[in-house]
Write a structure and sequence with these properties.
By secondary structure, the chain is of the alpha+beta class. It has three helices and 17 strands. InterPro entries: DUF7107.
């Protein structure tokens, strides 16, 4: 009897030990698995669920309200496209540093996706310039040729403080790079007549009226205003296609934009004036009056004939 109890006790102890070992193993797996800011990563796909990769670690993330995406290009560089939403780190301190998400390594522009530029061995989101090209060699080393235009790495600040901040033959005017026109050759600003300045060995001045007929005619983040000038614009939330219009703003490069200066927006078309009603025709009674007069005259001519016939009856 005692031996039986001993065997039962040993069996129960073995079962308890096995169960404890099982739960201990499960707990250890969860404890050492991917946790906030602990698990290592090199690309976004290394982080599972609602987490994003930043500085080699996975961090908890939250979806950005009102966003939707099917590819990373539809989210900003401070966000990640996951589960058809744009996500950003939950920690505000990490979110403030969370830039250049999922940058691909590259040695040439061809290693990057379309509309990206290879700078310092990393692929950055680009924006188009007004320089036309047929291949990457037609652009400078920090620009790539996509869709017949040279693209440069997109910068957070598209303004300028000096003429050197502007591309090519553009000039800085009130913090904005504007198109310029060529003038005579020069070595210094003093060689040029005001308001022209010397740049790239030429006296150039801001063009009085850059022409455009649609927003796609304007370079970079500029839009075409009602005076057919390219003026600064800025991105707003939302994307668009030729068949899907923006709720707010206008569509350019499949993104929604608004004019930086609201007064530059084209005026709404005025409704056409309603046509004046045609004059009503005169009453038909007026036309009938001459006919009545002719009938009366005919009756008057017939009366003498009747009088002439009366004497013949007396004979």
């Amino acid at each position: 009897m005692n031996a039986l109890l001993l065997l039962i006790t040993l069996a129960m102890f073995s079962a308890w030990q096995a169960q404890a070992q099982y739960w201990s193993t499960r707990y250890t797996w969860y404890a050492t698995g991917p946790t906030y800011g602990v698990s290592a990563c090199s690309i976004q796909s290394d982080c599972f669920g609602q987490m994003v990769c930043h500085a080699g670690n996975c961090y908890a993330a939250i979806p950005v309200f009102g966003t939707s995406c099917t590819s990373q290009s539809q989210c900003s560089q401070s966000q990640v496209c996951k589960f058809r939403k744009c996500w950003k780190p939950q920690d505000p301190k990490i979110a403030a540093q969370f830039t250049s998400v999922n940058l691909r390594s590259c040695t040439t522009h061809s290693n990057c996706r379309r509309q990206e530029v290879c700078v310092n061995s990393k692929c950055y989101t680009g924006e188009p310039t007004d320089t036309e090209c047929s291949n990457h060699a037609d652009c400078n080393s920090k620009e790539a040729c996509w869709s017949g235009l040279c693209w440069k790495a997109k910068q957070a600040n598209n303004g300028c403080t000096s003429h050197d901040d502007c591309d090519g033959l553009k000039l800085c005017s009130e913090g904005v790079c504007l198109e310029a026109v060529l003038a005579i050759t020069c070595n210094a600003n003093t060689d040029c007549l005001s308001p022209a300045v010397c740049k790239l060995g030429r006296c150039i001045k801001i063009a009085s009226k850059p022409q455009c007929t649609k927003h796609a005619d304007c370079p970079g983040n500029k839009l075409c205003n009602s005076q057919e000038n390219c003026v600064p614009g800025r991105r707003v939330s939302g994307s668009c296609t030729p068949t899907q219009r923006c709720t707010t703003g206008v569509c350019k490069l499949n993104f929604c934009w608004i004019f930086a200066d609201s007064s530059q927006a084209p005026e709404e078309p005025q409704p056409e004036p309603e046509p004046e009603p045609e004059p009503e025709p005169e009453p038909a009674e007026a036309e009938a009056e001459p006919a009545a007069e002719e009938a009366e005259a005919a009756e008057g001519e017939a009366e003498p004939a009747e009088e002439e016939a009366e004497p013949a009856e007396e004979e």
